[in-house]
Amino acid sequence: MSKNSVREIGLKLLNQVGESGGFSHILINQAISNHDVSEKDKGLLTELVYGTLQRKLTLEYYLKPFVKKKTEPWVKWLLYMSIYQMVYLERVPDHAVINEAVTIAKKRGHRGTSGFVNGVLRNVQRQGLPNLESIKDPVEKISIQTSHPYWLVKRWVDMYGIQTTKDMCESNLEAKKISVRIQPLKNTLAEVEEILKEEGIETARSELSKQGLNIKSGNPLTSQLFPGNLTIQDETSMLVAEMLDAKPGMTVLDACSAPGGKTTHIAEKMNNEGVIYAYDLHHKKVKLVKEKAETLGLTNIHTSAQDSRHLQDIHAAETFDRILLDAPCSGLGVLRSKPDIKYHKTENDIYDLAEIQGQLLDSVLPLLKPNGTLVYSTCTVDRHENEEQIKKLLDHHPDFEIDQNFFEQLPLSCRQLDGISDYGIQIFPQDFNADGFFITRIKRI
Predict the structure, then answer these.
(1) Judging by beta carbons within 10 Å of its beta carbon (0-12, 13-18, 19+), is residue 163 exposed, middle or buried?
(2) What are the Cα distances from residue 249, in Å, to 246, 274, 325, 398, 444?
(3) Most CB atoms closer than 10 Å: which of 60, 285, 292, 388?
């Protein structure tokens, strides 16, 4: 496949995600499969799409002085993709980027389009790009430099301060590390480390989970252990099941279980004993949980498609020793791997999701046994969905309280973070070069 072909596919995906709201990670995987993209070209395609999306607002700012008229969406994305390569990909010479962009413009448009693209990119090459340091408003500066919407940066600055927000936004632009979770009923951590080492995969033990390994080099997807003995999972996500502290023989509820990473982790912690009721809203998502359990050889997970706001119709009060509510959320903690989220979410989405989170909490709390514990978690960074949600819960449910043992049982590296509050722990993406997560544990008195 020629580089032009890779760039044409990349342009198609960017236009699709940018204009129609598709999910980049899903569309990239589909394109790789449909076009039989080689191993060598997968990296370039992923870099072009993710990189251009990650830097969209910065690229828009760079191009503004050079584009005075409204252009077709695909032409705009072609210019974004080209500027991205000229600024951020040192291995690709500017003249090659311009020539390839002009060739694509000729194929997709007409002579006038290719001339316009050529003129814009030549002017950028000659005149240089606007200086981001000249932006006076500190919120706008972070917004443009790190390509996060102004409203989101302002919201974070109001919640967490300018420095934490700047660090978070910069962290969201970095490549995400890969972490894996071992299946401890099949292999010990030491055995997995040795096997991976023999396969040329270098690892370091996670600070957040006794089952976790961070990949320093190599590809765990090529390991003989994957997928039956090894699960790809972010290490902050692993902390959720660790803090649930489910024991063998318990009855556990996972109210929003798809795609199954946390569910199967809980089952492993329970030595595949007891029972986990794993629910999610859609049959297709529940199928993912079931398949994941089968792949790992876990048999104590019962799956069903249910709206967890109505679980009191299925289960009697005080049924469960442990409940996990990994609630649907705005996903603002996973922008590193899903950059399109930051352009599609709005403040109204946050408030709408918080309403659902509250309904879910109200529904599952009566199902918890006395002295049982519930872990509430989200993969977002927003106090309205996190701390404020828990404060509201405690105000309305006097028979529940924050489990103070939760803070004592956190790993030492978490206990030293700035994100600890009376209501739980907010892990920022920059804390572990991983996903942003909020986790807390609530006890029934």
Answers:
(1) exposed
(2) 9, 4, 20, 29, 20
(3) 292
414 catalytic per annotation: no
Q: How confident is the model at residue 92 (pLDDT cuts 50, 70, 90)?
A: confident
Which has more confidence, 86 or 36?
86
User: Which residues does 202 contact at the CB level (< 8 Å), separation at least 6?
Assistant: 196, 215, 216, 217, 218
Q: What is the phi/psi pair of residue 200, to 5°?
A: 80, 20
**Other beta carbons within 10 Å of 137:** 11
Residue type, 284: K
Q: Cβ atoms within 10 A of the Cβ of 351, count?
A: 12
The pTM of the full predicted model, rounded to 2 decimals, is 0.94
Q: Is 25 helix (H, G, I), strand (E, B) or coil?
A: helix
Q: What is the mean pLDDT of the chain?
A: 96
In the structure encoding, which two tokens stand for residue 245, read together? 């502290």
Q: How confident is the model at residue 2 (pLDDT cuts 50, 70, 90)?
A: low
CB neighbours of residue 41 within 10 Å: 18
Taking the C-alpha atoms of residue 172 and residue 208, their distance in angstroms, rounded to an integer, is: 20
* Active-site residue, selected from the candidate residues 256, 329, 379, 414: 379
pLDDT value of position 3: 54
